[in-house]
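PROTEIN DESIGN WORKSHEET
SECTION A - STRUCTURE
LENGTH: 270
TOKENS:
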């Protein structure tokens, strides 16, 4: 795993990126922060999700600002109705009027922005460097327990011939063990579903545990055959860095959502 990321600020809007993804040359990506928007969480917040406590106009303006900052203001943005499952959606060239329901998006189509929305859950981007297929994954504790990242890679394999060894993956800011206390339900499920749970779930003195979503997902990436040097991680806890990130846990549920987005650039033909 490599911890190598940067922050970029454009017109007051701040996002995190990985140089090793930018250097590919054909991918646009970003993990947004809370900085540089118009939403009231508490002020000037870059909330990118339609949720209670913010107006539709604010979210639209924030999304527009983000895409313009990234130079992809003309491209369609595909988001999901996320519901903490292991459901993987393949996005073709046709954009549906309604948001599909699921927690991972895959496409082989250039010019379409895949985005997932988070505030503590792990945002993961996948890039198949050989076949030029990309994915965005929402991995909270439920999705992680259902191995959503492995299911995404398997779906990429069955539909597009993706081999995990050809993929570069990035885990964005997510809540870490320092701030993520979990209860009996989570501990029981992890012990049952994930044999190597001791590597990322740390038991406390009583009934509680402390979960590292990043570690759990990185373990799954390695298990399926992604090379360690192709796994990038921001290694930043959303709850510890409240000035930069929305944290559902850290702010007791009343907060905005960030986005992790990825798009393949369109190849210009003569
Ligand atoms: Zn923390």
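SECTION B - SEQUENCE
RESIDUE ASSIGNMENT:
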């Amino acid at each position: 795993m490599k911890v190598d990321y940067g922050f970029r600020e454009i017109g007051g809007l701040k996002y995190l990126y990985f140089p090793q993804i930018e250097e590919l040359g054909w991918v646009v990506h970003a993990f947004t922060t809370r900085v540089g928007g118009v939403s009231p969480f508490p002020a000037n917040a870059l909330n990118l999700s339609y949720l209670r406590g913010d107006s539709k106009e604010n979210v639209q303006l924030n999304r527009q600002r983000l895409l313009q900052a990234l130079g992809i203001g003309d491209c369609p943005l595909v988001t999901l109705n996320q519901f903490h499952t292991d459901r993987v959606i393949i996005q073709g060239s046709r954009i549906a009027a309604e948001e599909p329901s699921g927690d991972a998006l895959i496409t082989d189509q250039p010019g379409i922005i895949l985005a997932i929305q988070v505030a503590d859950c792990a945002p993961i981007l996948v890039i198949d460097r050989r076949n030029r297929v990309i994915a965005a994954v929402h991995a909270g504790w439920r999705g992680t327990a259902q191995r959503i990242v492995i299911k995404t890679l398997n779906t990429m394999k069955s539909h597009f011939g993706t081999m995990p060894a050809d993929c570069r993956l990035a885990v964005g800011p997510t809540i870490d063990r320092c701030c993520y206390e979990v209860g009996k339900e989570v501990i029981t499920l992890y012990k049952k579903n994930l044999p190597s749970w001791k590597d990322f779930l740390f038991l406390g003195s009583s009934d509680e545990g402390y979960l590292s979503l990043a570690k759990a997902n990185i373990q799954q990436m390695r298990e399926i055959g992604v090379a360690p040097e192709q796994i990038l991680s921001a290694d930043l806890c959303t709850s510890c860095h409240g000035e930069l990130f929305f944290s559902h846990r850290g702010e007791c549920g009343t907060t905005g959502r960030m986005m992790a987005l990825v798009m393949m650039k369109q190849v210009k033909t003569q």
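SECTION C - NOTES
The CA atoms of residues 48 and 59 lie 5 Å apart.
The chain has a mean pLDDT of 96.
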